[in-house]
Design goal:
Length: 298
């Protein structure tokens, strides 16, 4: 992502959070970035496209954070469970756009692409948390897992609202083990009473069809997008043109090697290390490095 494009995205997320999606205009965002409205349209053709860019950025960030927790071999299953709850709470609290529900002022309109995208994000998170709860409490919860997901979601959402909107002095470090313990109590009660589920697989079929992406699926879908962002950022770097040409060649080599049936891991890592030498490119290089380290064989 270019330096200016990143500035636009950060400004838009803040304004959408503070004012709401409908109340924020493209002109507001352009003024906040100190650029002309026409300059903003060079990066995003509409406010809708800009909002979807923010959602995609944050969704990718969440996937990578949760993957790191899964890879933490030092954590017990219980510690991993609490850590995953904490990471979700911290993520949503950091990106208040998803807590204050800036898109919630109206129902999606005809030809609106944001409504379906939000539904898909929510559905994937529910599926993720369903498997999280089943991993923690066992397959015996499977039949009641959708009910348990709703309980977890409702509890987390209300606590976050109290923190983000009402300013209650609560921390995610306190909330995450507390919520985990309350889920222990709720699940124990559900299983002990042998209740029938309110939300059956049939009722939740539409949600269940939006399964969470694997890291491999995410990498495959997003790699070209990340390379495009690297390329646009290179164009704005304050470095000599000779250095820009070198970096552009590195990007081209990355593309070529990534298209090989069996890409060479050592070469991909070396190319990414070269990109990471530029501070503005480092976040993208580290993102791709994680994909390479986890998905490409030595």
């Amino acid at each position: 992502m270019s330096i200016m494009k990143k500035k636009i995205v950060e400004s838009a997320e803040r304004l959408f959070t503070e004012k709401g999606y409908d109340a924020t205009s493209i002109q507001d965002i352009a003024d906040d970035c100190s650029i002309a409205k026409g300059s903003l349209y060079k990066f995003f053709s509409s406010k809708e496209d800009l909002f979807i860019e923010i959602l995609e950025e944050r969704r990718l960030e969440m996937i990578e954070q949760m993957e790191r927790i899964h890879e933490a071999a030092s954590l017990s299953s219980r510690e991993r469970y609490v850590a995953e709850i904490e990471r979700q709470l911290q993520f949503l609290l950091t990106h208040k756009l998803f807590v204050t529900n800036a898109r919630g002022e109206r129902m999606p309109q005809e030809n609106d692409r944001i409504g379906p995208y939000l539904f898909q994000m929510r559905a994937r998170l529910m599926n993720y948390n369903r498997e999280l709860l089943v991993r923690q409490y066992g397959e015996e919860l499977r039949q009641l897992s959708w009910d348990a997901v709703v309980m977890l979601t409702a509890m987390a959402k209300e606590f976050l609202f109290q923190v983000a909107a009402s300013g209650k002095p609560l921390s995610v470090q306190e909330l995450s083990p507390y919520i985990a313990e309350r889920m222990d109590d709720l699940v124990q009660g559900l299983l002990k009473r042998e209740v029938k589920p309110m939300l059956t697989d049939t009722l939740m079929a539409e949600i269940a069809s939006c399964s969470p992406e694997t890291l491999r699926e995410t990498a495959q879908r997003c790699k070209n997008l990340v390379l495009e962002r690297i390329a646009s950022t290179i164009a704005e770097l304050q470095v000599p043109n000779s250095r820009k040409r070198d970096l552009e060649q590195v990007v081209e080599l990355l593309k070529q090697e990534g298209e090989n049936p069996e890409p060479r891991r050592f070469l991909l890592l070396a190319l990414l290390n070269e990109l990471a030498k530029e501070r503005e490119l480092e976040p993208y290089a580290l993102q791709m490095r994680m994909w390479v380290e986890k998905l490409v064989k030595s």
